[in-house]
Design a protein that fits this description.
alpha/beta; seven-stranded parallel β-sheet; two-stranded antiparallel ribbon; single chain; 246 residues
């Protein structure tokens, strides 16, 4: 009996950031920019729905079967950081069903500034902010902002309407990230879309050549849910960060 063929190991690219920053639209932008030359798949995360997956399917950016939803049923952090079993199984099943895939994008459920992916789940990660969240948010730091492989300042076309200086926001982000890459992006600005495309292609090249090593952005802070229960991730962080889920 022949040995089963092991599916090709894709580049697994995590996309995290607060609610409403445009993670799903960024993934749609990546798919539009690269679907003609790469074989792509997407895993979305929502607590109780498959809304993000349905949005991407309706956008027509990929074969709908290449877009899978994971319903975490709990804290969005947990499924990308502490217990990645459901997401990892979804990625591996997608790779098996559509072998070979070049890139699988994994979208975190929207959460706060502390959200990071485990390197056991993804090879590289983007963290997404948007100008509507305020020009000062890039200065606030946190493991996602500070140490993700790429920080995206999204929706820059809205900056004039919300009183944000994009150049200053990017400068603040570069300082917070100690020079790690920052991309100011609008899906309607072709130059910035091409920069995003080039970054993904460079990460894929590094993955294939074995020159890119997944990095752990660092522990997430303890945080609180609406029920008052504290959740901790990698318990060595000393500065609580409070938030509630709508």
């Amino acid at each position: 009996m022949p040995d089963p063929v092991t599916p090709t190991r894709s580049l697994r690219l995590g996309v995290a950031g607060p609610v409403g920053t445009g993670k799903s639209s960024l993934i749609a932008t990546v798919c539009r920019a690269l679907a003609g030359e790469l074989r792509l798949g997407v895993i979305t995360n929502d607590i109780y729905t498959d809304e993000d997956a349905r949005f991407l399917r309706s956008a027509g950016v990929l074969d709908p079967e290449r877009i899978r939803a994971v319903e975490t049923g709990a804290c969005p952090h947990t499924a990308i950081r502490d217990d990645v079993t459901a997401n990892l199984a979804a990625v591996e099943q997608l790779e098996a069903d559509f072998d070979p895939l070049d890139v699988v994008l994994v979208e975190s459920g929207g959460d706060n500034l502390t959200a990071t992916f485990s390197p056991a789940l993804v090879d590289a990660q983007l963290f997404v902010l948007d100008v509507a969240g305020g020009g000062d948010v890039a200065r606030k730091g946190g493991p996602g902002i500070g140490r993700a492989d790429l920080l995206v300042v999204n929706k820059i076309d809205l900056a004039p309407y919300v009183g944000v200086d994009v150049e200053q926001m990017v400068a603040d982000a570069l300082e917070a990230r100690e020079g790690r890459p920052v991309l100011a992006l609008s899906r309607s600005d072709e130059a910035s879309v091409q920069e995003l495309r080039a970054w993904v292609l460079a990460m894929l090249a590094g993955h294939r050549e074995g020159t890119h090593e997944p990095q752990d952005p660092g522990p997430m802070a303890p945080h609180f849910h609406a029920d008052g229960e504290e959740h901790t991730h990698d318990h060595d962080h000393e500065h609580p960060h409070e938030h509630s889920h709508a």
